[in-house]
From TrEMBL, chain A:
Subunit of clathrin-associated adaptor protein complex 1 that plays a role in protein sorting at the trans-Golgi network and early endosomes (TGN/EE). The AP complexes mediate the recruitment of clathrin to membranes and the recognition of sorting signals within the cytosolic tails of transmembrane cargo molecules. It is found in: Cytoplasmic vesicle, Clathrin-coated vesicle membrane; Golgi apparatus. InterPro entries: AP1_sigma (IPR044733), AP_complex_ssu (IPR016635), AP_mu_sigma_su (IPR022775), Clathrin_sm-chain_CS (IPR000804), Longin-like_dom_sf (IPR011012). The keyword Transport applies. It is a peripheral membrane protein. This is AP complex subunit sigma.
TrEMBL record, chain B:
This is AP-2 complex subunit alpha. It comes from the Eukaryota. Gene3D superfamilies: 2.60.40.1230, Leucine-rich Repeat Variant, TATA-Binding Protein. GO terms for cellular component: AP-2 adaptor complex. GO terms for molecular function: clathrin adaptor activity. The lineage of its organism: Eukaryota, Viridiplantae, Streptophyta, Embryophyta, Tracheophyta. Belongs to the adaptor complexes large subunit family. Subunit of the adaptor protein complex 2 (AP-2). Adaptor protein complexes function in protein transport via transport vesicles in different membrane traffic pathways. Adaptor protein complexes are vesicle coat components and appear to be involved in cargo selection and vesicle formation. AP-2 is involved in clathrin-dependent endocytosis in which cargo proteins are incorporated into vesicles surrounded by clathrin (clathrin-coated vesicles, CCVs) which are destined for fusion with the early endosome. The complex binds polyphosphoinositides. It is found in: Membrane, Coated pit.
Amino acid sequence: IHFVLLISRQGKVRLTKWYSPYSQKERTKVIRELSGLILTRGPKLCNFVEWSGLKVVYKRYASLYFCMCINQDDNELEVLEIIHHFVEILDRYFGSVCELDLIFNFHKAYYILDELLIAGELQESSKKTVARLIAAQDSLVEAAKEQASSISNMIAQATK
Amino acid sequence: MALSGMRGLSVFISDIRNCQNKEQERLRVDKELGNIRTRFKNEKGLTPYEKKKYVWKMLYIYMLGYDVDFGHMEAVSLISAPKYPEKQVGYIVTSSLLNENHDFLRLAINTVRNDIIGRNETFQCLALTLVGNIGGREFAESLAPDVQKLLISSSCRPLVRKKAALCLLRLYRKNPDVVNVDGWSDRMAQLLDERDLGVLTSSMSLLVALVANNHEAYWSCLPKCVKALERLARNQDIPQEYTYYGIPSPWLQVKTMRALQYFPTIEDPNTRRSLFEVLQRILMGTDVVKNVNKNNASHAVLFEALALVMHLDAEKEMMSQCVALLGKFIAVREPNIRYLGLENMTRMLMVTDVQDIIKRHQAQIITSLKDPDISIRRRALDLLYGMCDVSNAKDIVEELLQYLSTADFAMREELSLKAAILAEKFAPDLSWYVDVILQLIDKAGDFVSDDIWFRVVQFVTNNEDLQPYAAVKAREYLDKPAIHETMVKVSAYILGEYSHLLARRPGCSPKEIFSIIHEKLPTVSTSTIPILLSTYAKILMHTQPSDPELQNQIWAIFRKYESCIDAEIQQRAVEYFALSSKGAALMDIMAEMPKFPERQSALIKKAEDTEADTAEQSALKLRAQQQTSNALVVTDQRPANGTPPVSELRLVKVPSMSNVDHSSADHGVTQENGTLTVVDPQPPEPSADLLSDLLGPLAIEGPPGSAVQSERNLVPGTEGVPNAEDALAIAPVGEQTNTVQPIGNIAERFQALGLKDSGVLYEDPYIQIGIKAEWRAHQGRLVLFLGNKNTSPLVSVQAVILPPSHLKMELSLVPDTIPPRAQVQCPLEVINLRPSRDVAVLDFSYQFGTHVNVKLRLPAVLNKFLQPVSVSAEEFFPQWRSLSGPPLKLQEVVRGVRPMSLAEMANLFNSFRLIVCPGLDPNANNLVASTTFYSESTRAMLCLIRIETDPADRTQLRMTVASGEPTLTFELKEFIKEQLVSIPTVSRGPAPPPPPPPPPTSAPAALSDPGAMLAGLLH
């Protein structure tokens, strides 16, 4: 997978992840081209779009388009189900995910994606495992926060 | 759900969402960026929390599409934070903001490395993820060993190891040297025994990348892949969490089968059997179900299984099963499956014996060409293109043409290119080909690249039978009310060349042709006007007897464009005007274009080029290289093991002489005729690219054949008997039985060999005849090199020499059969009996599918028996005086001489071993030369030549030739005359024929019409 894009129906970008090196300029261009290409496609067409020697596998969930770009001879359906797999994990994490969740917690989406894909390849196909790892990360952050606040409490108290 | 826990960030996002328009949003973003910038400036006051918040904001702004050109340092610096929350943000934002080439990343390498080798598991994970996502070459070099260690470490937990596997995969992609094959292959095999399916999935991806580059080292992994696949397919011991809609990790199944496709075959019968059992189960056991995701997942596995079956060359039965399945798929409603069915059917074309079954689905495929989904239409087009052959070309191409009028713009260019290629490759007759291309231009002129119309011009020029037909067609199209500019170009070009063939038809008089073309002139762009001007000039030339009215009309046009701002147009106008006022000269310069050398279609090359290459070599491509393909992909591969055996024949260089000749000819014209400018050998700017295709082979030095060969025959491992049709895709099918097109111009090759002693005499797709000669006095020794270019033998080879009476020639035995790719040398002894310009002919024939017979002139010509000799004034004048008058001394005024300066003429003489003796003649406009001629009857005989030129008119001169023998004097005089009137060009040959005719400066060459000359010499 060369990159992952989440675009809203209005063409707003909700998440981008680039596994192949694209410069800032190229990234903007790719997003512009693909929004034009994918958002205009009708509902009953196939989930694959050929684009500049590559292929984009996309799927629409409510107002969001999830797009993944692959090589011409990669297995399209496999990638289509990676998308679905990602969506299911998001869904489980946020509890029936909606676009708003991904807007305000876009960083969570990045964490989850990093547990799912590395180097553009699937690293984990078990939803349970991903969920467990994300939960562990969250608790680490929480613990750090508590620790910080308890320390600052202590300092605060000590300096009272 | 306020998981973010960062109020500032949430507020900012809400603000952005509340913006009414883009302008407001930009203002808000700018304000925020300003804020972040100031905060970052006095970093000291920032708490880790604030830093995190700002870095996230930056990423958010970046995602919205704004340039964020600062703060990267802050993001990178968070990586080295001691606490997890900051570190995590640093890693993730860095890997999203930067790409692998960013300078700041280098700063982080050490920190990243410390995290990888450190003992904090969570830090390891973060670091591996970053490197896996954006690590570049430098990371590869410094981190690969550490990552490898983590991957095989027994103390690491799966969550670290699976990341390490993919991280290593990335590093390997960046620099394959980081994985030491010898040490790693065993480890890789061990990794495949992994029980944790997360680690196994990642490891399998790594394996795919490794075997794609080098399967040899990883044979030991093959049985393990098959085992893993069996385990999955039978759902043995697969944890529930790894089944996806009831299917045991479809991704791992796909990956495993992908890895297997990189091994050329499976030798172990047991492994092969168990694999086929699994594949059979997948092929047969995959049903269509209601649930979309289950369906997709199971079909992802199924399509990969199909690809693997194709790769393994399964038994015919299984192949037919596959085709049957695909046939079912291309007819279903579900668009994804239909798309993939078409795509995989195209891949299936690689497998030899299924094409006929695929052809049965032609009607269904054509329906898909009209699908509402462009993705599906594209696949259908590709498949039709791939499955097209002689039997269905007419149907398919006509279908494509019909579709062209309604096709969307995005596809038209590809469509017309493909239609043009198919029409060319599989034309049952050439007039059909011309029809197709003209229709293409008519229907989709904007999408017809110049290559396409250049190609049709090439065909028409090279096939005399086709010329009247093409002219009629071109004339018909001109009657249409609004025609595309490309059509104007083609029609004008063809009618300029061949409209005289139609002269008796109604509406085809020169005048009428002229006026219908001229009607279009106001509508065309500057790039077309030069073509029209050439056409006018040609029409004028063909109008015999000349028509003063037409002439005045055309002259008026030329005069009008004499002051055109476009240099090309202006030049043509000036030149054509000047030339056409000269009368006779026009005839020579405007003569019909000679044939183009046969060459691979530029269109096919173009089609290949558009197939974008991808970084990792795909299994499909590898496969295409491993096997002979019947698909239409014409490859340009050279044999892997160096040059093909016949190559030595091609090493021969054209003498540099021809170059000198070329430039000097240009100068001559300049001096001679002030109105003509020296034409830059490069075609003018706007058309340079466009012309390069047509001009290419003529302009390059060296035997044209090497550029032209049908590469196909050189591809190693082609089937035993190369199919005559393949090699001659451009020739009409009907004629293939009795004609083989020579590669390159035979007459040109002969001319070239007149000046040098080695080179190619003849070449066609099957054979190359090279020649090497040595001359001593009246004797010569030629060696013929007969090179078989094929992978199968040439039989019934016969070579007979038809010597003229003055030459005694003896050819050694020529073998009846030339083995595949072999070269046979046949020496030929020559003795010159007496002076004569007659030429020996080699009657050569062979059998290769068809009987081929060619008659070739041998370069045992008069000047080969000359030896240069330089004489002094003391030797020259007595001799000159003693040979007084005819028949020993002959004088003639020669007219129609190719204009050249004295220096060039001297060069020309020297090249024929007539040595110019400077200073002998006091008149600077004269030239004196001497040489010795050898033959049995004359022995060595001194010959003296004097040329007197007229500086006022370089087209005429007076020539005096003297020798001790009347025949010699006469023959030598005639020989020199031939050289002065026609040019023995080599690389230039007859004027290069671009669609717009060549600049007049190089045109006199056209006089030497190769056909006429050959006829004259063969009498």
